[in-house]
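ligand=BJW
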Amino acid sequence: MARHTRIVVLTGAGISAESGLPTFRDADGLWEGHDPMQVATPEAYADDPDLVQRFYDERRAALSRVEPNAAHRALARLEAELGDDLLVVTQNVDDLHERAGSRRVHHVHGRLRSAWCTTCDERHDWSGPLADRPPCPACGAATLRPDIVWFGELPYGMDVVEEALEHSDLFVSIGTSGLVYPAAAFVHWARGATLELNLEPSAGATDFAESRTGPATRLVPAWVGEVLTGSSGRGRARGPR
Ligand code: BJW
Ligand code: ZN
């Protein structure tokens, strides 16, 4: 294995699909029954907090019925070898990377198992419902909302992502449609080689030096195997397109 390979992996809903969590935009996806703008904006929350809280309560509850899959586990194996040289940046709000054993996981769109108090600005690990308006453990106000980044809000830790991409040798995007910014632009922030692993070519597939198609549970363990054995497949360096 190359000693100085620093890798940034971006994951999206596609990596958790085979665990049983629906994606957002695929047929039968999460937004089939919901207009995204009805549940994933601060304005929607202000208009109908009960609807939005119930939507996220259901998804939080669903987490205890699913398990990490072979793709999550392969990334955890890679971190066990690379340590600080691997950062997983995820758009997902589930906790399947952590449950597979990854420790260096950065959630840019927040976490289902976290609640944010809009009165005192504290965040709390949370596994139960929020629709029944429980009091904030810190200040007692009944103003806990899902700790989720909605459209129009600032994703978490863009400085961390920018710094990691600036110093990376390889950026790998897994299971994301490439339709939501700023994550869709990370491929342009990356300095090194770029590789996409997705069920089908994403909206931004041509921005990657290499794009492989197939299910994450097949592609990710195969790619991790290549990195760990030092064979090809780290993504080719950027060249003319
Ligand atoms: C498989 C598979 C298998 C299936 N194996 N693969 C106009 C132009 C450009 C930008 C904007 C614009 N107007 C507004 C914006 C900005 C806006 C935006 O991007 N809008 C777009 C709709 C255009 N973005 C924002 O508002 C963001 N904030 C922001 O930009 O702040 C300003 C800023 C400026 C500069 C720097 C930094 C910040 C916030 C975005 C918040 C997104 N939040 C959501 C909801 C979170 C809550 C929740 O989970 O409910 O995050 S939206 C939703 O989309 C969710 C996801 O994380 C995100 C991405 O979805 P993802 O993961 O790609 O899922 P899918 O379903 O789209 O795709 C799944 C993929 O997997 C598919 O490709 C499948 O093929 C594949 N797949 N099975 C492998 N088995
Ligand atoms: Zn509070």
